[in-house]
UniProtKB/TrEMBL annotation:
It is found in: Cell membrane; Membrane. This is SURF1-like protein. It comes from the Bacteria. Keywords: Cell membrane, Membrane, Transmembrane, Transmembrane helix. It is a multi-pass membrane protein. Belongs to the SURF1 family. The chain crosses the membrane at residues 12-34, 222-240. Pfam families: SURF1 (PF02104). InterPro entries: Surf1/Shy1, Surf1/Surf4. Its main location: membrane. One of its GO terms (cellular component) is plasma membrane. It comes from Lysobacter enzymogenes.
């Protein structure tokens, strides 16, 4: 007995199926190409950041430069500041570092030029230690990495200035909470480590510990690009199967 073959699809249905496959294929190829572009951008970003981090420290941007400060141009610049810390205005921001959970300790520094920069002096393990570690008195030079403000708060946690509960280094909000006057830089500086850590971390180092800036950028764009391209090939293969099946149907129902 002859095998039953389904009748051919109408021209309209074939056109609709073809349009769907074509749209899916084009969309997946576009997504893969976009990830390739992102891969190039990420490599360029990593190279730029590496060159900034290891460069000789330069002067921190002053007020005339602040409108042009951006992540693309300035993030992780190696900078130098001279000035005096303002007493009684330290801020603790929750942090998780390679030394464990604790706080970043931020202190405002009034620069020689008269403007104020928040300096992340480093990590402290708990609130008690943070409160007992005042900034050094007198004129001081600070070198570190320029970081952009982190407005709002952390993941699912909003800053609460009235309660002095901070989950991100929000420069404007911290300055407002401490009523800092004058020009406030729109960035903060992660201070470098003043002394090497002891080999045994159970021996408390000199708090706060600077130099714990995490410079790591997730770079999964190649995997994502390959995933989209493989999915595009699968769509193309499925389209070819549909075309072959339709050709078989039309051949079986072809009138003599």
């Amino acid at each position: 007995m002859a095998t039953s073959v389904k009748p051919p699809r109408s021209t309209f249905v074939l056109g609709l199926i073809g349009a769907v496959f074509l749209a899916m294929f084009a969309g997946l190829i576009a997504l893969g190409a976009w990830q390739v572009q992102r891969l190039g951008w990420k490599h360029d970003l990593i190279q730029r950041v590496e060159s900034r981090v290891h460069a000789e420290p330069g002067a921190a941007p002053g007020p005339s430069d602040w409108p042009a400060v951006s992540a693309a141009r300035d993030e992780y610049r190696h900078v130098r500041l001279r000035g005096r810390y303002l007493p009684g205005a330290d801020t603790r921001v929750q942090a998780v570092t390679e030394l464990g959970p604790g706080f970043w300790l931020l202190s405002p520094l009034r620069s020689e030029a008269g403007y104020t920069v928040l300096v992340n002096r480093g990590y402290v393990p708990d609130a008690r230690t943070a409160q007992s570690t005042p900034p050094p008195a007198g004129e001081i030079e600070v070198t570190g990495l320029l970081r952009l403000s982190e407005p709002g708060g952390g993941f699912l946690r909003r800053n609460q200035p009235a309660q002095q509960r901070w989950f991100s280094r929000d420069v404007a909000a911290i300055a407002a909470a401490h009523r800092l006057d004058g020009a406030i830089a729109p960035y903060f500086v992660d201070a470098e480590r003043a002394a090497p850590l002891p080999g045994d971390l159970r021996q408390a180092p000199q708090w706060p510990v600077g130099g714990l800036t995490v410079i790591k950028f997730p770079n999964n764009h190649l995997q994502y690009a390959l995933t989209w391209f493989v999915l595009a090939l699968m769509v193309a293969w499925a389209g070819w199967r549909v075309w072959r099946e339709e050709s078989r149907r039309r051949a079986a129902h072809k009138t003599p």
